[in-house]
Design goal:
This protein is mainly β. It contains 1 helix and 22 strands. The chain starts with a helix and ends with a strand.
């Protein structure tokens, strides 16, 4: 009897998650291109910056967006097949961020393809504008809790980004990096 109730609870959770997913796909339909069966948990917040909604989010098949994820900007985000954004992740995309297949992005990661300009000492930084460069995260990458990925970075396939690392330079294939700024610790398979 107990097993029967567990099955009912599991089924109920699946139905509720599907309804939440449909809700967010409808709510943000002007931003999201949905290419398969994906899951979106509560708290997704999409913010297009500026008067014209130019932000585009392309979800490939099997993606998962966990609780309280924020995606903001004016650019294009592609989330590859079977990849996920864990809870509290913030993505700022004003140019382009491409996330490949089977990418695991842990909780509270920040991925931003934009920096503020600050060179002119006579003009307040808030009025100096921004500069952007695309970010590419290739297939089968694991990004640890609290990591920061900055503009223009390419993370090659199979890489692991340690918890709380700040990635400011490209990461080679199968490299394990950590620290502030992130440096290569070793390579997978060594």
């Amino acid at each position: 009897m107990k097993h029967y109730y567990l099955k009912i609870l599991f089924f109920k959770k699946k139905v509720i998650l599907k309804l939440i997913t449909y809700y967010y796909l409808a709510k943000y339909s002007r931003f999201i291109i949905n290419e398969g069966v994906n899951t979106i948990h509560r708290g997704l917040n999409i913010r297009s910056i500026g008067a014209v909604a130019t932000l585009r989010i392309n979800l490939k098949k099997g993606c998962s967006i966990k609780y309280n994820v924020i995606i903001q900007g004016t650019g294009k985000l592609i989330l590859g097949q079977r990849s996920y954004l864990s809870h509290g992740t913030i993505i700022g995309v004003n140019d382009k961020i491409i996330i490949g297949k089977n990418v695991m992005i842990a909780a509270y990661v920040s991925i931003r393809d934009t920096d503020h300009n600050f060179q002119d000492l006579e003009i307040p930084m808030i009025r100096q504008g921004i500069n952007s460069a695309p970010i590419v995260i290739e297939d089968n990458v694991w990004i640890g809790h609290g990591a920061v990925i900055t503009k223009g970075v390419i993370i090659k396939k199979g890489a692991i980004i340690g918890a709380n690392a700040v990635v400011t330079k490209d990461v080679p294939e199968n490299a394990i990096v950590g620290g502030v700024p992130a440096k290569i610790i070793k390579y997978r398979g060594q």
